[in-house]
From TrEMBL:
HAMAP family: Glu_cys_ligase_2. SUPFAM superfamilies: Glutamine synthetase/guanido kinase. Pfam families: GCS2. It comes from Lentzea xinjiangensis. Its EC number is 6.3.2.2. This is Putative glutamate--cysteine ligase 2. It catalyses: L-cysteine + L-glutamate + ATP = gamma-L-glutamyl-L-cysteine + ADP + phosphate + H(+). Keywords: ATP-binding, Ligase, Nucleotide-binding. Belongs to the glutamate--cysteine ligase type 2 family. YbdK subfamily.
Amino acid sequence: MANAPQCADTVGVEEEFLLVDTASGRTSVRAEAVLARLEDTELTQFHAELAGTQVEAATGPCTSITALGEALREARATLAKAAAEAGLGLLSRGTAPKPSKQPIVTHDNPRFRRVLDTYAGVVEHYEACGCHVHVGVPDRETGVRVLNHVRPWLPTLLAVSANSPDNGYASWRMVEQSRFPGSGVPPVFTGAADYDAHVARMVACGTLVDGAQSFWLARLSPKLPTVEFRVADAAATVEDAMLQAALSRALVHTACRGVQSRPVRDDVCAAAVWAASRYGLDGAGVDPWRECRVPATALLEELVEHVTPALAERGELTLVHDLVERRV
């Protein structure tokens, strides 16, 4: 219990954005032109993505959700200015309403080329954007315990974030992401060695290009001492990104407090992810324990209740209630 604040103290967010031609509304393969106008700051670093139609802004670690929100606003304003100087608009959405008609993978990055060679048509036109939340953990063993704890809650985080409406789905991004091998809720791991062995097997089988890659909706970061939540669509607003960050950190904090999650079936978790992508918060979700359909908003209420002690401990309960009210 005493180590809980250390376990979940820092939080950072990586936001992926689409670059769009202001005249046609189509995504534009001009990320390099935008990135050339940017310099990293103490708060944020800017990165290229696999698709030349995308750019990423990654905040540094923050201890306050309010401070994180300020960093996100500054990053968005900086990116929007650079995009405008290049004659482009900046769009925060899970998928492109009007995708580029050009090939989108144009980088000389060798790893990006390996990804394209491995997954072929799955990534040739993949312009999906996410809001990735990193929460600090003291070690990888703790990180694996956190992953096991958050499994049942990942579909609800997706439903809250749904921001890529297309083809009748609230999150078409998740449908596109499901085409990658191993996508979805991660399996239960016995520890860090089991986690690493699973990744190594998938590399040996050829379904992952290297040990730094996985398609799970939550994973151990390959570079940072964090658990990385990769479930959310790109956030429509800064407030939506703040909500994802606050709920994700509270889930980590709850796991570190020793609260146990009841076991859930893998196939029911997959059903819950599908329901979240199909309906978002506007329809039925799947309760992973009762194994039946329930209102998605009821699952969100259960999530907030589950993490209420962690939120209250950090003085964030009122903030999260306000953010939830804005979202629903």
